[in-house]
Specification:
Layout: E1 2-5, H1 14-24, E2 31-32, E3 36-39, E4 42-44, H2 51-55, E5 63-66, E6 91-97, H3 113-120, H4 130-138, E7 152-158, H5 163-179, E8 184-189, E9 194-200
Parallel strand pairs: 1-2, 1-5, 6-7, 7-8
Antiparallel strand pairs: 3-4, 8-9
Length: 203
C-alpha cells in the first residue's frame, strides 16, 4: 500500500519518485510517498496526476491519499479548492469525529466553521448536533464534494470511544442511510477499539 497527500504539493521528479517507491516496495509493504518537507513535521505530497502512476506500480493493491486536512479538528467542511481528489479515485472516505457533538460551532472546535454554518443553516456559536454531521457529510458541497462519479462513498464516524458516542454514531448512520448517498457507513474508535459497527448500504 502507498500513502500520500494531495492537500499541499509541489512539482518534483516524477520518474525518480516512482523509481524509489518501486524499490521500497520490494523491501516493505507500506510506503509513504512525499516530495519534500515544507515545515516542521510537514511534507508536501505528490501532484494529482502522479497518483495513477503510483497505483499502476507492480504489486500495489491500494493508494491512500489524504485529500483534505482539518487542522487536527474532528469536523470540517471544505472551502473552495478543497478537497483535492484524484480523478482515478475509486473510493471516497468522508470522516467526522463524534467528539465534536455538543461543542460550539466555532473555529476552536470546527475547521471551516463558517462553511459548516452555511451548509447546516446554523449560526456561529450554536451547539453542534448529530444531525449537523449527517447534513454536512451527505451534502454535495460537504462530504461528497469532488467525488468522482464512479467512486464508492464511505462515511467514517470516528471517536465512538464510549456508549454515548456509539449511540450518536448509530443515530447519524441512520440519517446517512436514509439519505441514500453513501455505499457504506463505519462507526469506529480508531485509537482504541477499532471498528465498532459497519452498515453496508449497497455495493
Amino acid at each position: 500500500a502507498i500513502v500520500s497527500t494531495a492537500t499541499f504539493h509541489w512539482i518534483g521528479d516524477h520518474d525518480r519518485l516512482l523509481s524509489r517507491v518501486r524499490v521500497a516496495l520490494t523491501q516493505v509493504h507500506h510506503v509513504t510517498a512525499v516530495c519534500a518537507p515544507y515545515a516542521r513535521n510537514k511534507y508536501a505530497g505528490v501532484p494529482l496526476d502522479w497518483i495513477a502512476g503510483l497505483r499502476d506500480l507492480p504489486d500495489v493493491y491500494a493508494v491512500l491519499v489524504e485529500a483534505d486536512g482539518s487542522r487536527k479538528m474532528p469536523f470540517k467542511a471544505p472551502r473552495a479548492g478543497e478537497p483535492v481528489i484524484p480523478e482515478c479515485a475509486t473510493v471516497l472516505i468522508a470522516v467526522a469525529g463524534l467528539s465534536v457533538i455538543g461543542q460550539p460551532l466555532d473555529e476552536a472546535h470546527v475547521c471551516r466553521a463558517d462553511i459548516v454554518a452555511q451548509l447546516t443553516g446554523k449560526r456561529i456559536g450554536d451547539v453542534v448536533e448529530a444531525a449537523d454531521i449527517a447534513t454536512v457529510l451527505t451534502h454535495g458541497e460537504g462530504g461528497l464534494k469532488g467525488k468522482p462519479p464512479a467512486a464508492r462513498a464511505i462515511a467514517l464516524l470516528n471517536q465512538a470511544d464510549d456508549d454515548e458516542r456509539m449511540g450518536w454514531g448509530e443515530r447519524i448512520a441512520g440519517m446517512i442511510q436514509a439519505h441514500g448517498t453513501f455505499n457504506q457507513i463505519i462507526i469506529a474508535s480508531l485509537e482504541n477499539a477499532g471498528v465498532r459497527a459497519t452498515v453496508q448500504i449497497n455495493a
